[in-house]
Amino acid sequence: MSDLELLQKKVRKLQSRAGAAKMELHDLAEDLPVNWTKIKAVARKAFKIFAELNAAKEELAALENSQ
Fold first, then answer.
1. Domains of the chain, each with CATH number or no CATH
2. Which position has the higher pLDDT, 14 or 67?
3. Which residues form a coiled coil (predicted)?
4. CB atoms within 10 A of CB 16
5. Predicted TM-score (pTM) of this structure
6. Contact 21, 46 (CB under 8 A)
C-alpha cells in the first residue's frame, strides 16, 4: 500500500472517530444540566481527535500536491 493510500485510510478512520466525538458532545449538550461535570473531559477528547484529523488532512493535502 502506498503512503498516499495509508494516509487516506488514516483520514477516513479519524473522520469516523471525529463524528463519534461530535455526537458525544451533542448528546451531552442535549442532556444538560445532567452530567455537566463531564463537559471538560468530553470536550478534551473531541478537541484531540479533531486536531489529529486536521493534521492528517494537511499532511494528505501536502502529499497529494507533491505528486
1. 3-66 (1.10.287.660)
2. 14
3. 4-31
4. 12
5. 0.89
6. yes
pLDDT digits (tens, 9 = 90+) for 1-48: 899 999 999 999 999 999 999 999 999 999 999 999 999 999 999 999
Distances (CA, A) of 57 to 25, 44, 52, 66: 22, 20, 9, 14
Task: List the grid coordinates of 2.
Answer: 502506498
Residue 67 has pLDDT above 90, yes or no: no
Helix intervals (H) in the chain: 3-30, 39-66
Give the cell for residue 52: 489529529
35: left (phi over 0), alpha (psi -120 to 50) or beta: left
Cα separation, 36 vs 54, whole angstroms: 27
